[in-house]
Design goal:
single chain; 231 residues; alpha+beta; Rossmann fold; five-stranded mixed β-sheet; two-stranded parallel sheet; 7 helices
Length: 231
Amino acid sequence: MPIPARTAVVLSHLAFEDIGSLEAPLRQRGFNLETIQASTAHFPLPQAQSCEQQEYPFLADEIACIAERLAARKPTLGICLGAQLVAAALGARVYPGQNGSGQNGAEIGWFPLQAAGGTQTPDWFAPLLEPGLSVFHWHGDTFDLPQDALLLAGTDRYPHQAFAVGDYALGLQFHPEVNADGLESWYVGHACELHHAGIAVADLRSASRKHSTALAAAAARFWNLWLDHVL
């Protein structure tokens, strides 16, 4: 029997950053994808019902939209800025990081995750904690862990890298969705940021070629396990 069509709404903040390796498992489950540019969206979003807010006022409306969705306990995923917005929607503090690898405190590059102590890692998250695996990071801000959220992983520099809320929401500060070819547009779009952070594109490109194949395999397992868990 054919799978009934469903819609996954993607709130995007930069046109050259897409959902990468998450697209295929969503489509395999019968989802249509609707991408909305958050900066020009008209909130509240009917599709979504079922930080730097002074510079970017649309974030306040986006956070309110996310909060409403979380209150309804509907499946929600936040990646990077998205994780920060989920944390903010749950009342947690979001603030500039100070411990990154770049000169401005940004954590940019490939680094391994560490399982959170004192808790059992869910089976669906385990592929991202495989020994020797590095995942891609690109963030300047960080956040406090929201109340009642389950911390899943951190890094040496930032302890809050992944958290789950109940069985319906997930925040990931890192980028499991990327691949080496897709990152080429990031290097262009974020050229000024990389310059100010003192990070060489050649070094990022080399590391991406080294680590992205293993990440793609781990992410494929992770996406399928998490989607089976949350849907």
